[in-house]
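In the laboratory, one determines a bound structure by crystallizing the protein with its ligand and collecting diffraction data. In a computational setting the workflow is compressed into a single prediction: the sequence and the ligand go in, and a structural description comes out. We illustrate the idea with S-adenosylmethionine.
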Amino acid sequence: MPRGDRGALTRVRMKSPTDAQPWEEIYRRDGRVFDSPAPVVHHVAEVLREHGCRRVADLGCGSGRHTVFLAQCGFDVIGIDNSPTALRLARTWLAHEGLRARLALADMRRPLPLRDGAWDALVSTQVIHHALRDTVRGTAREIRRILRPGGVLFVSVPSGMDPDETFRQVEPGTFVPTSGDEAGLPHHIFSAEELSLLFPGCTVLELDQIGGRIWALLAVRRLGHRRPAGAAGRP
Ligand SMILES: C[S@@+](CC[C@H](N)C(=O)[O-])C[C@H]1O[C@@H](n2cnc3c(N)ncnc32)[C@H](O)[C@@H]1O
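The predicted complex, in structure-token form:
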């Protein structure tokens, strides 16, 4: 990692209060939300090693459990989230472990602040579904854009809504909780087929259901896809 990038937090000004989302409040109230990596991410780290990955983006890193774990594994990691409090918690955790990773405040509903084709892998657990369907598709395009050919992506998303929650449907497949911690935050619920088709130009390596309520997709960006024009100044 270039020395100047170490620990750098890219500050992206939020354009309007509607950019805020309930997770900011959750992190302010509860502090670090998850203490250990999701078990599947141990397997993901193995797959990343097998594919020769070094630079890994953790999209929606939250308080940092996977950013910390992947940095411990020796990857060069950037954690991205649009909750400033989550990034502060992640930064504190990294410092406590004596680890270095970049952290960027950014909204996945907008272009990601990462260069085209510059990343070997992207990991995103329980994040990209937090938007309306077309926006989720835009995020998926961004994920593909930043991956190098042969780069690996791992995303997990819910395969259903929590039956104990109350919610309303706002478009086919997208639900907004009307109470609870995530009230107001859209949840797009994928079928296995929709998820497998979300990343054209990528080959699905694994698509599994975890614990009955989560889809986990591992895919690799195919070689030979044209690399879009560069975006200078981004990591
Ligand atoms: C369920 S948490 C998962 C956090 C982390 N991936 C993990 O597994 O511990 C969802 C995360 O997505 C982030 N998030 C939600 N909407 C976002 C957006 N539009 N842009 C960036 N991050 C977002 C939240 O701040 C939160 O950290």
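The domain at 141-223 is CATH 3.40.50.150 (Rossmann fold). Keep in mind that any predicted model is a hypothesis to be tested, not a measurement.
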